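Q: Predict the assembly, please.
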Amino acid sequence: MAQNLTSLEHLIQILEKFPGIGRKTAQRMAFYILQMDSEGIYALAQSIKDVHEKIVHCSVCCNITETDTCPICSDEKRKSSPIIVVEDPIDVMALQKIKEMKYRYHILHGRLSPLDGIGPKDIRIKELFARITENNDIPEIILATNPNVEGEATAVYLHKILKPFEIPVTRIARGLPVGGDLEFSDEITLSESIRGRRAIR
Amino acid sequence: MSRIAKTEAISLKNVSLSGASRYIIALTRDFGKVTLVAKGIKKPKSRFGACLEPFVLSEVLFYHKENRETHYISHCDIIESFSNLRRDLEKIRFAAASVSVIDKVIDHEEKNSVLFDLVFSILTELNRSEESQLFILYLAFLTKLAALLGFQPILDRCLRCGALAEERTHPYFSIVEGGLICSGCEIVASKDRINYKRITPEIREILYQFLTEKFYKNKRRILTDSSLEQLHILLKMYLEYHTDKRIPPISESYLII
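A: Predicted assembly structure:
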């Protein structure tokens, strides 16, 4: 970078830190920002500031929200509905696409990972415990952690520690994706789909 | 210039990339440890499915580019899934500890098919063994790994005077020199407590068995918990000294609440 452009270089260095953004993309983004008008620049800066200042974690479900408690937890229609346990807030956004039924959520903000040394104390399990202890309107807990080694370890662990509460604990189904083809599936996916088979309703 | 390469691979670790892709750090039979890029792996309809999950043995096809640190995967098929390692928390702990050690101590793209067989063996053993055997299997794995990397400890005689194990007691193990020190040389040994570690005849015996047996088969004779822990510390220090790399600890037991 040429001299006297330290502010631009600084912006490139910050943008480079974003996931999936390399040096060249960061440069392109920085030059785009440079060409934006003042209104656009201030709107961008303000929205980043707002996200930083206004977004908090819901004291009930640990989801990201602007009001504590979050709209999902304060929704009367969801009262006494099952709780879906997920790894990250982005998973709630995906699950919110289900229109048939209204659920409540609990966000762990991570998953157990023996490979990265992440244990139960590092994720929001304590909050889930407190929530179950304080409420007796939970008909079911659905474990919707990702179907990989870490998500599976988290689900097995949660199933073990939630047993004393005597609430039904279920795991989301695993197997073939809708529209997928049997012949292209691997043995783990196939065996999981056979093990998790159910009667036709 | 890239060429299509086909080899067996054991996934050691996955690192999430932006979007739906992941880096897969894998130990391969023909290329050693490699970093592979699996595009779109997080999507439900990904062609990779569960093939590249940690601890899975697969046959992978990838575009191998020389002088490049990452290579794109084109196709893969599961050879052995080690399904029990995905369902049991204790097995996950020890499998994770084993592959983490390999990830730490092995450099990129150094072919070593014997090492590949060792990793396959420990995953096979952990997959089929009972919970009470897992720690000792992991210790056997560390001992065999040290030997395979060229640091096989001398366990049949004193490193200083050459006195055979059956002639005299050998109460010390030298981390630096890699072997036993007999009771006659004890005065030298006892002054340096960092290098010389006290070991019991049972620990010496089990270390010897780890090295001489194909994998640890003598499952009737189990050391006490404190002896196992002592052996674990010794092996960890030994590997760390000789490889100059930090051996990752075994993650805490999730079963203790």
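The mean pLDDT of chain B is 87. The interface with chain A takes residues 13-14, 17-19, 44-45, 47, 49-51, 53-56, 77-78, 81, 83, 86-89, 92-93, 96-97, 99-100, 248-249, 251-252, 254-255, 257 of chain B (CB under 8 Å).
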